[in-house]
Design a protein that fits this description.
With about 400 residues, the chain is α/β, with parallel strands linked by helices. It contains 12 helices and 16 strands. Helix content is about 35%, strand content about 20%. The strands form 4 sheets. A 5-stranded mixed sheet has the order 6-5-4-7-11, with helices on both faces. A 5-stranded mixed sheet has the order 14-13-12-15-16, with helices on one face. The protein has a 3-stranded antiparallel sheet with strand order 1-3-2. A hairpin with a 5-residue loop joins β4 and β5. Mean pLDDT is about 90; it is low at about 1-10 and about 290-300. The structure holds zinc ion (ZN). Zinc ion binds near residues 262, 274, 276 and 281. Zinc ion binds near residues 262, 272, 276 and 281.
């Protein structure tokens, strides 16, 4: 796989996240490999016999796969189980979490690009940041390449599994950014161009996806969320969402699923950057929630909650946009990724109240509305999840 930019047909689109059944004969090797890695990743250390039971594969197949994955440095033999057992103790196999690292870049903040070196278990072992304020077009790529090189320079013992990038805008599965307004990118081949800038040292594959989609993916891979019906709304420079439904990430025919920031949330609201007014982006932002100048209300002190009238309006207008989506897909998890800390419990409660007024009690009863625990690292961890998925079939 080294030396190539992701070209897998469809990327994450329609890919079943975390398959559990053994493969049909014929396309078994890659699938079975993912199955073994996935079992170890999610269940922890297992003996070969336990691996065979969990995956439904034969002992012989497991032994082959374990030998191959160990040779690649992806798994390790931990030796015999310590507790006393009858007979010969079975040795335990686990993911070799620190044997490989991913270089993850988050380009969703237009003022700074953030980067991290992350182990296969999502542990951040190095960080770097570059200022990008005002950059557009190729200049953003210069910053991204410099950041990636800084991170890769920190890799010592481990092998680099790949580079994952969380980018704003509409991103195709092959890493072409169809459109990103702030960076003035149109049909910009980000994955290919970044790969060309970095090679030959290293000649690592580069994968790119939309930042909001990646935050949803991180919630699933690293925060234990279900992928049956989850929408993660990202509150960053723009507002976007990632939707996991029936175990797959929704992209849509134009790869623009989850672009909900410019759905009208209220009549006669604030003017929006898109030229219209009252979009959801004008409701859920720092001006309204964080530092005052709230919609239709007097100013507030920074760090305080909006006044009750503003809160009610925020809850009502947010629910007007999100409620129909929750209903249409019967979502069970509505998660807000809030890297800037705008959402207080009071704001969340107002949104819950707004939703309760619009949704069937049956849907509302099963809906968990919460703020992501992944904080400002959600997009970085999503970029790691992207590389794990593309390179190892691991979600
Ligand atoms: Zn708008």
């Amino acid at each position: 796989m080294n030396g190539s930019v992701a070209r897998r047909e469809g990327g994450l689109s329609g890919v079943r996240l975390r398959p559990t059944a053994k493969a049909h004969p014929g396309h078994s090797r890659t699938h079975n490999r993912s199955l073994v890695l996935s079992s170890l990743f999610h269940t922890g250390p297992l003996s070969r016999a336990e691996l065979a039971r969990t995956t439904g594969l034969t002992r012989v197949t497991i032994s082959d796969l374990v030998a191959q994955l160990a040779a690649e440095g992806l798994i390790e033999d931990l030796g015999a189980r310590t507790e006393a057992r009858v007979g010969k103790p079975a040795s335990l196999i686990d993911i070799n979490a620190s044997g490989h690292v991913v270089a993850a870049l988050d380009l969703s903040d237009i003022n700074q690009a953030r980067g991290a070196l992350v182990t296969l278990r999502g542990e951040i072992v190095g960080r770097a940041t570059v200022k990008t304020a005002g950059a557009a077009g190729e200049a953003v790529l210069d910053h991204a390449a410099a950041l990636a090189k800084k991170l890769i320079g920190k890799v010592s013992e481990a092998r680099l599994l790949g580079v994952g990038v969380a980018a704003p805008g509409v991103v195709r599965p092959d890493g072409v950014v169809t459109y990103a307004k702030d960076y003035q990118w149109r049909d910009f081949a980000l994955a290919q161009t970044l790969h060309d800038r970095l090679k030959p040292d290293p000649d690592a594959p580069v994968f790119v996806a939309n930042d909001a989609n990646l935050r949803a993916l991180a919630e699933f891979t690293f925060a234990g969320a279900s992928a049956q019906g989850l929408m993660e709304v990202s509150l960053t420079d723009g507002l976007g969402a990632g939707i996991l439904l029936d175990g797959s990430l929704l992209l849509g025919p134009s790869n623009a699923a989850g672009e909900i920031g410019h759905i009208p949330a209220m009549a006669g609201g604030e003017p929006c950057t898109c030229g219209r007014s009252g979009c959801l982006e004008t409701v859920l932002n720092r001006r309204v929630l964080g530092t005052g100048r709230a919609t239709g209300s007097a100013s507030l002190d920074a760090g305080t909650n909006p006044d009750p009238a503003t809160l009610a309006k925020v809850g009502e207008s947010t629910a007007a946009v999100l409620g129909p989506i929750v209903s249409a897909f019967n979502l069970s998890d509505l998660v807000f990724a809030d890297p800037r800390g705008m959402f207080t419990p009071v704001v969340l409660a107002a949104i819950r109240d707004g939703l309760a007024q619009r949704l069937l009690p049956e849907i509302m009863a099963d809906l968990d509305v919460r703020v992501s625990a992944l904080g400002s690292d959600a997009a970085l961890l999503g970029a790691v999840a992207l590389v794990l998925s593309e390179q190892l079939g691991l979600t």
